[in-house]
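sry for the spam today, last one i promise. C-alpha cells for design, 145 residues
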C-alpha cells in the first residue's frame, strides 16, 4: 500500500496574490482543513483551472506505485495501475528547502518544492515537515472535491 507523506483538503483563498506573471500558470493561495497549513502552489491553469473557493485534495507522496515500492525515475509504459489514476493533476518535483521560523512562541515550518519551475510552499506544523528530507523527490497529486 502506498504510504503518503501528507494529505489534506484545501480551499483556494486567492489566485495570483503577488500579481500574475505567466499566461498559462497561476499561483494559488490555499488553506487546509485538517492541519491548518498554508499552501502557495503554481498550477498550469490552462490544463487544470483553479478558482477562488474551489476545494481540492492534495497528496504528497514519494512514489506512485500502489505497492509502495520506490519510483525508478523512468517512465515505464504499460497498463500498470498507479496512485496517479485517482487524481486529475500530477507533477513530480524535488524538495529544495526546509526552514523553521518562530514568532511569539509559535513555530512554523516551511517546505519548498520545485516542479520543473512551478513552485510550492507549504507552511505550518513542524511535525509535518519532519516527514520530509532535503533533495527528496516528490509527487504532488490534486483532485477537486
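last one done:
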Amino acid at each position: 500500500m502506498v504510504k503518503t507523506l501528507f494529505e489534506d483538503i484545501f480551499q483556494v483563498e486567492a489566485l495570483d496574490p503577488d500579481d500574475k506573471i505567466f499566461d498559462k500558470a497561476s499561483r494559488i493561495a490555499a488553506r487546509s482543513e485538517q492541519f491548518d497549513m498554508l499552501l502557495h502552489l503554481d498550477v498550469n491553469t490552462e490544463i487544470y483551472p483553479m478558482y477562488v473557493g474551489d476545494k481540492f485534495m492534495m497528496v504528497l507522496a514519494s512514489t506512485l506505485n500502489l505497492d509502495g515500492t520506490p519510483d525508478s525515475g523512468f517512465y515505464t509504459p504499460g497498463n500498470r495501475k498507479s496512485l496517479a489514476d485517482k487524481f486529475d493533476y500530477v507533477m513530480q518535483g524535488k524538495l529544495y528547502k526546509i526552514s523553521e521560523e518562530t514568532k511569539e512562541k509559535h513555530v512554523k515550518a516551511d517546505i519548498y518544492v520545485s516542479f520543473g519551475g512551478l513552485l510550492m510552499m507549504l507552511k505550518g506544523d513542524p511535525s509535518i515537515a519532519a516527514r520530509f528530507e532535503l533533495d527528496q523527490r516528490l509527487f504532488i497529486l490534486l483532485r477537486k472535491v
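Strands lie at 4-15, 25-32, 38-44, 55-61, 89-103, 106-115, 118-124, 137-144. ok im logging off now
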